[in-house]
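Quick one: DUF4974 domain-containing protein from Bacteroides ovatus, structure tokens please.
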Amino acid sequence: NKATHKITATQVHPNDYIEWTKGNMYFEKESLENIMKTLSRIYDVEIRFDSNKLPNEYFTGTIPGGGIQNALNILMLTSPFFYEMDGSVIVLKEKL
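--- reply ---
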């Protein structure tokens, strides 16, 4: 902290950094809401939820690089959603 001149130690997960150096993204117990914010920023797309339930789903795992569709297809394997793309807008919809 620059204002107080104190150093704070924080526990980190080595997988986060190891996977990042390989071009992958590692998430541990991360909400789909936060994951989609990350993907939106990385791939410069707008991602919307068509369900109030989906943002609160959680995912743990590694998503290799390879584009937004690859990332979404991997997330769909463990999460109850499908998606529709319209240009740079992606809408996540709950599987019924």
